[in-house]
From TrEMBL:
Keywords, alphabetical: Membrane, Methyltransferase, Transferase, Transmembrane, Transmembrane helix
Origin organism lineage: Bacteria, Bacillati, Bacillota, Bacilli, Bacillales
GO term, biological process aspect, one: methylation
Listed GO CC annotations: membrane
Protein name: Methyltransferase
Entry annotated with the keyword Electron transport: no
Coiled coil feature spans: none
Organism: Sediminibacillus halophilus
Transmembrane regions: 73-97, 123-153
UniProt GO MF annotations: protein C-terminal S-isoprenylcysteine carboxyl O-methyltransferase activity
Cellular compartments annotated: Membrane
Amino acid sequence: MNWWMGLLFVFLILQRLIELGIARSNESWMKEQGAIESGAEHYKWFVLTHSLFFVSLWAEAQWKGLYQLELNIYLFILFVITQLLRIWCIASLGRFWNTKIIILPGANLVRKGPYRFIKHPNYLVVLLELIVIPLMFHTYITAIMFPFLHLLLLRVRIPEEERALGELEKGQ
C-alpha cells in the first residue's frame, strides 16, 4: 500500500473506533432513560462483516501489490461526500444514533436532516462507502463482495428496525 492508501486506511479505522465510542455512550444514555434493544441476535454479523471489510481491503491491496497507485480524485470526492453524509446522519440523530437498534419509548421519531427524505439514509451511505472505498484502493473483489453482504444483512436489519420503530410510533 502506498502512503495515501495507508493514511486513508488508518483514518477509516480511527473513524470507526470513534463512532463505536459514540455509539456506546449513546447506548448507555438511552438505556438509562429506559431504552430497549431490539435485534441483538443479528448485530454480531454486522460487526463481523464490517471488521472483515477492513481485513479484505488490506489483504487484497497487499496481495495485488498496490504500491504505485495514484489517488483518483473523482472517487476521493465521492468518498468525501459519503463522509459528509455520514456525519449528517449521525448529527441528525444526535443521542439516538447507534450501531444497534435501540428504541426509547416515548421518544419522537427523528425526521430532520436526511431522515426527512428517506427512512434509513445511514444504510445507504454505508453501502456507498463499501463500493467507493474499495474502488479507490483498486480492490475489486472487496468492492463486489461487501456491498452484497451488507445488502443481505439489511434484509434482516431493516425489517427488525421498522418493527421496533413501529412499536415506538404506536406508543405515541
